[in-house]
Structure formats: structure tokens, C-alpha cells
């Protein structure tokens, strides 16, 4: 789309909003009153098309208000595809927090924008505000709906993963793998990189025919099928998403792997079997909660044979400072998600009585993975919207582009931690890594 026509400088909604951002907005802004702010020769801009959008921005300053307006269609992005808004959001990143105006300036802002816009509209339907947020305090005493209880974790997982299997097929591609790929070369395809990731995990776990593997948080069963098909391993995968489990079991049958592979719709904490040769966790730790790390890694330890191995693959912070996830991610993407630094992960693994053998960072690989998913979303935009709705599709474009930027800037990382259940000093591990 072309840039909007000019309006009187310094007057109206757009200049007032732009004045709230420290350093100014790095793209142009047009508002429904015809006002414009910013350099209109820039290739990217946003247009505030309704009063509701202004109310979203005023009642939830920062990324949450902007996200609400964008998801609802009240804030329109120009110059970039909503499925892959990476270039535009690269400019906007770090410019979404309002400055704190002085009292007199604040009065002027409120008069200019209108006090009526301080009444918050209902959030878009894509925002995760389940009943437990309202009744949590009453039920906390009963122990049912506390943070990361089985009921609350199931609710959070279903919000994110039970969107539509067809939607995920369009975005993720044939591998149906929603975790960081590992690119063997710069020009490897996304599918090649996902296959390489699964094979690397199998080699790190030193899987051998006839062994037993437990894959917790198995998603659509990519690791389950790869280990069974290529390594002859008996594999049990568990996921809290019913949609994932149904798809995975159908694919296992289609590939004729029924004798080796199984995916259950289950909380990993409900797995009764034990004596596994290896346990893999690929993309589950983000949903566990830092306070639950001792129980989580203790569960893995207890499921292993002596000298067995675990491989933990998860998103991490670039440091070990304790902080909460941003409001947009918590409300729209991963409710109750928590990240920690890799040092925190390693310490928790060691404190559980496991011996860490290898620790590796795949940060740049996740940026490349997200770029591939955004391309898929943009290329299949109409089909993705048809499967869900336009607001949900916008959420995905926004979150994946923003996550790509965060990985590129080393704000978040992705780590593998490989450990053994060492028994009386015998880890079963070779003198040097063999993977």
C-alpha cells in the first residue's frame, strides 16, 4: 500500500501517540482522524483505524495494548505481510513501551486523546483469559488450579496447540515439528534441518535397537517416529494436546510403526512405566515452571535405568536473572510459560543427581527455523486464516517474527543439556563424545 497523504504536523491522534514513545516511532503512523506522524517516505507504517484501537493502546500501554489493537484489526500494518512482518517489526522492536510523561504533559495527552478512551474494551477473543484467572484464589487452597497444576497446564497447552492440525501443517511443513531445527549447512531446507535435529538427539542419547525411549512433550511425534524408524527403538511419547496425540497416532499407523511407537494423550507425570534407556524432552521445559524443575528432572532420573541418558532441549534466557514472560506472550501465545538461563537448567539437572556430559547452544538455528515458519505462514496465509481466523493468524505472524528478532539479538537462546544417570561413578559414557 502507498503511504498516507500528509496532515497538519503536530496535531491530532497520531502525533500525540508518537510523542509518547521515547526516541519516536521508527515508522510512520496514521490515525482515523486523518493525522499523520513520522517520515512518510519510510516503507513501513501502521494505521490506527478505529476508536477501539485507541482505547486498547491507552488502557494497556506497551506491547499488550498494541498487540490487542493489531490482533483485532484496529491497527493495520502497511508495507509488510501479516504472516511475515519481520522487517517492519525489526524496526519497531524496543520501541513499544511508552515513556512516562510529567503530570502536565499527561493531562494534555489525555485531553487530546479523549478521556472516554480510558474505558478498556473487551480483549480480542484470541486472548487467553480462562475462568481460572477469575477463580484462582478460591481454588488455590484446594490445590487444583495452582500455577502448573495438571489442570492448569492442560488448559494452557490446549490454548496454544489445539488450534488446528491443518493450520500447523501449513506453518510447520511436512515434518510437523514445532521446535528448533538444527541446520547442518547454511542452505539446508527446514525439513532437512528438522530431520537432522532428531537424528542428533538420537545420537546424543546413543540409541540402539531394542532399547526403550520415553519422549515427554512429544508434540506430533516427530522424535517418536524418527527413533523408532531409524534406530529400532521402542518409544513412548506423551503430550497434553489431544489434537497432537490423535494426529501422531494416525501418522504412526500410516508409516507402519505400530509395533515400536506409541503416542498418548497424557500428562508426563502420569507415566507409570520405568526402566527406560533414555528420556528426551524437546520443547517441554518452557511450560514446566522454574519452581517445578526439581520434580521435573527428578521424574526423568527416576524413569531411567542406571547409566541411562536424558536430553533436555529448551528455550533459555541469555542470562540467569529471574523475570516474568511479557504480557503478549503470556496472554496470546504461551500462557504460564517460564524461561530460565541455561545455567539454571544445568544446576537443576545436577541437583537432581544427574551428571551433565554436554551443553550446547542453538540460538542462531532457532532464528533460521522461525524465518522458515514465517515464510510458510505468509505463503499459506489464506488457508491458515480459513482454518482459524484472521486474528489468530496475525498472532502467529507477530509472535514468530518477534521471536526471530529476539533470537537474532541474543535475548533468548536454545540449549541442549545431555546428562547421565551415573551409578557408583559409572556413567556408561565414552571417553569423548561420539555423536
UniProtKB/TrEMBL annotation:
Taxonomic classification: Bacteria, Bacillati, Actinomycetota, Actinomycetes, Propionibacteriales
Q: Mind listing the GO biological process terms from this record?
A: methylation
Signal peptide from the UniProt entry? none
What this protein is called in its record is Class I SAM-dependent methyltransferase
Q: Which UniProt keywords apply?
A: Lipid metabolism, Methyltransferase, S-adenosyl-L-methionine, Transferase
Please report a single Pfam family linked to this protein.
Answer: CMAS
In terms of superkingdom, the source organism counts as Bacteria
Task: Give the Gene Ontology MF terms in alphabetical order.
Answer: methyltransferase activity
Q: Which family does it belong to?
A: Belongs to the CFA/CMAS family.
Keyword Lipid metabolism listed: yes
Amino acid at each position: 500500500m502507498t503511504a498516507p497523504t500528509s496532515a497538519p504536523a503536530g496535531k491530532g491522534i497520531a502525533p500525540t501517540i508518537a510523542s509518547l514513545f521515547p526516541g519516536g516511532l521508527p515508522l510512520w503512523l496514521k490515525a482515523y482522524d486523518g493525522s499523520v506522524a513520522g517520515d512518510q517516505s519510510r516503507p513501513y507504517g501502521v494505521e490506527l483505524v478505529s476508536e477501539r484501537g485507541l482505547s486498547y493502546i491507552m488502557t494497556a500501554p506497551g506491547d499488550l495494548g498494541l498487540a490487542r489493537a493489531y490482533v483485532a484489526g484496529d491497527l493495520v500494518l502497511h508495507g509488510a505481510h501479516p504472516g511475515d512482518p519481520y522487517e517492519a517489526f525489526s524496526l519497531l522492536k524496543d520501541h513499544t513501551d511508552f515513556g512516562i510523561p510529567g503530570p502536565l504533559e499527561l493531562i494534555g495527552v489525555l485531553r487530546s486523546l479523549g478521556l472516554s478512551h480510558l474505558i478498556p474494551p473487551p480483549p480480542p477473543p484470541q486472548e487467553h483469559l480462562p475462568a481460572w484467572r477469575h477463580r484462582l484464589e478460591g481454588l488455590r487452597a484446594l490445590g487444583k488450579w495452582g500455577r502448573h497444576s495438571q489442570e492448569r497446564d492442560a488448559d494452557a497447552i490446549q490454548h496454544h496447540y489445539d488450534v488446528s492440525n491443518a493450520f500447523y501443517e501449513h506453518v510447520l511443513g511436512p515434518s510437523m515439528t514445532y521446535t528448533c531445527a538444527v541446520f547442518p549447512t547454511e542452505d539446508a531446507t527446514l525439513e532437512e534441518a528438522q530431520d537432522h535435529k532428531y537424528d542428533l538427539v538420537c545420537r546424543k542419547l546413543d540409541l540402539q535397537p531394542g532399547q526403550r525411549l520415553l519422549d515427554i512433550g512429544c508434540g506430533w511425534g516427530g522424535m517418536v517416529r524418527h527413533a523408532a524408524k531409524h534406530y529400532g527403538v521402542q518409544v513412548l511419547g506423551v503430550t497434553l494436546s489431544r489434537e497432537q496425540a490423535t494426529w501422531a497416532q494416525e501418522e504412526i499407523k500410516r508409516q507402519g510403526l505400530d509395533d515400536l511407537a506409541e503416542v498418548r494423550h497424557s500428562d508426563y507425570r502420569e507415566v507409570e512405566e520405568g526402566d527406560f534407556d533414555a528420556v528426551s524432552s524437546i520443547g517441554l521445559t518452557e511450560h514446566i515452571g522454574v519452581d517445578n524443575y526439581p520434580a521435573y528432572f527428578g521424574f526423568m532420573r527416576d524413569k531411567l535405568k542406571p547409566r541411562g541418558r536424558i536430553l533436555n532441549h529448551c528455550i533459555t534466557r541469555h542470562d540467569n536473572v529471574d523475570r516474568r514472560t511479557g504480557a503478549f506472550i503470556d496472554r496470546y501465545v504461551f500462557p504460564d510459560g517460564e524461561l530460565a538461563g541455561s545455567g539454571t537448567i544445568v544446576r537443576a539437572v545436577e541437583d537432581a543427581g544427574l551428571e551433565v556430559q554436554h551443553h550446547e547452544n542453538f540460538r542462531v538455528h532457532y532464528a533460521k527455523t522461525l524465518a522458515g515458519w514465517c515464510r510458510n505462514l505468509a505463503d499459506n496465509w489464506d488457508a491458515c486464516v480459513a482454518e482459524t481466523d484472521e486474528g489468530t493468524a496475525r498472532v502467529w505472524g507477530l509472535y514468530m517474527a518477534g521471536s526471530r528478532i529476539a533470537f537474532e539479538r541474543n535475548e533468548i537462546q536454545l540449549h541442549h543439556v545431555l546428562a547421565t544417570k551415573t551409578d557408583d561413578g559409572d556413567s556408561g559414557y565414552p571417553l569423548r563424545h561420539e555423536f
